[in-house]
Each structure stands twice: as C-alpha cells, then as structure tokens.
Write a structure and sequence with these properties.
By secondary structure, the chain is mainly α. Helices cover about 75% and strands about 0% of the residues. It is elongated and about 80 Å long. Pfam families: RINT1_TIP1. This is RINT1 protein.
C-alpha cells in the first residue's frame, strides 16, 4: 500500500503550485468558492478509497499484511492533514477502516499485538528496573520499565484511533484500552503474590511504584475527552 499512498502524496505536492498559481485565479475570477488544491486532493483520495475497498477483503485474515496496511494508511492520513491541509469534512481512509468487518478485524489485531507486547515487556530482564534510576531529578517516582512501556503502548493506541470519524468507534477502542489496563493489573497481581514473602524487596517495591505511576498518569488523562 505504501507505493500508491506515497504516489498520491507526491501528486498532491507536485501539483500544489500549479493549482494555486494557474487554476485558483480562474476559479476566483469566476466567483467560485471552490479550492482547486483541495478538490484535486479530494479526487485522488476517492481513488485511494476505491483501491482500499478492493484490497482490504483480500488482506483481512493475514494479520501481518493487514496490520501493515493499517499502519501505512494512518501515516498517509497524518501527512494528508498536517502537510497538505486536507479537510476533516472530506471523505477519508478512516471511513473505510470504520466499516464493520474491517473495524472488528482492526480491533482484534490491535489487541493481539498489544498482548504480545505486554508479554515481552514483562518477561524482559529490565522489566522492574527504572530507565532513569541514576538520574534522581528525573526519577522521583522510580517507575519500572514495564509500567512506562505499558503507558506508552496505551498512548500509541490512542494516537492511532483518535482520528476515527465517529465517537462510537473511538469508544470501542477505549474499551480495548480498559481491557488492557485490567489485564496488566492482573499480571501485576500475579507477580506481587510471588513476592509477598519479601514485601520490602526490590521487585515488590517496583510493583507498588508501577501502580502509583499508572494511577497518576490515568488521572492526568482524565481531562482528555
């Protein structure tokens, strides 16, 4: 997918000056409110939507290819809005990703890869060690690596779904994040039970620091609608 997505971005960028200098004055002179650059972008995005509608059914059950497609589409959307000033009221790839079969698959794959990430972060040798343990002014909370990595994982998931066109779809992703928080809580509890004989031990204290850090960050996020 990156080939045709990049190609469209190149076309939009390469034609911008011509559309602004040559076509827009004609439209302005005719009293039209049409923006030539945006209409050109909209036409090309419609081609992308047709291509995605044809491609996605072929990729739905190949996790790696489907995940790659979603990643590339999200990068494309980000550049389309931030660099080329595309309007949120126009058709976008997020509408295709929001369609039921595609969306449910996206949620499933997102959860699968998130759980794999959680497995690896907790089995890491550095799981209970703070990355900043030698820098006292940075490390007041003594946050273990696994807790910091977990919260980064949640933040990345938010960043991926925040541009979905409907609140109901965003809430489904929020539901996934709540499941992941609960799963992480259960994993911490299991590790804590193994450490109860050494409640002042290094790992037991690291678990308490992790819980405190996660609760603090979630409280900070409470203002983020």
């Amino acid at each position: 997918p990156e080939w045709y997505l990049t190609q469209v971005l190149m076309w939009i960028g390469n034609h911008a000056q011509f559309l602004d200098d040559k076509i827009q004055p004609i439209l302005d002179k005719a009293g039209s409110s049409v923006n030539a650059g945006l209409e050109f972008s909209r036409g090309l995005v419609m081609l992308i939507l047709e291509k995605l509608a044809a491609d996605i059914p072929c990729l739905l059950y190949d996790d790696t290819l489907f995940c790659h497609l979603v990643d590339e589409v999200l990068l494309f959307e980000r550049e389309l809005y931030s660099v080329h000033g595309y309007l949120s009221s126009f058709p976008s790839c997020m509408h295709i990703l929001s369609e039921e079969s595609c969306f449910q698959r996206w949620l499933t794959v997102e959860k699968k890869f998130a759980l794999q990430k959680m497995d690896s972060m907790l089995s890491s040798d550095a799981a209970w060690i703070s990355q900043y343990k030698d820098i006292t002014d940075v490390d007041e909370m003594k946050v273990p690596d696994c807790a910091e990595t977990f919260m980064t994982l949640l933040l990345v998931i938010t960043d991926r779904y925040k541009n979905l066109p409907t609140a109901s779809r965003k809430l489904q992703f929020l539901g996934l994040q709540k499941e992941l928080v609960d799963d992480f809580r259960i994993r911490l509890t299991q590790v804590m039970k193994e450490e109860t004989r050494a409640s002042l031990g290094f790992r037991y204290c690291a678990i308490l620091n992790a819980v405190n850090y996660i609760a603090t960050v979630l409280a900070d996020w409470a203002d983020n609608v």
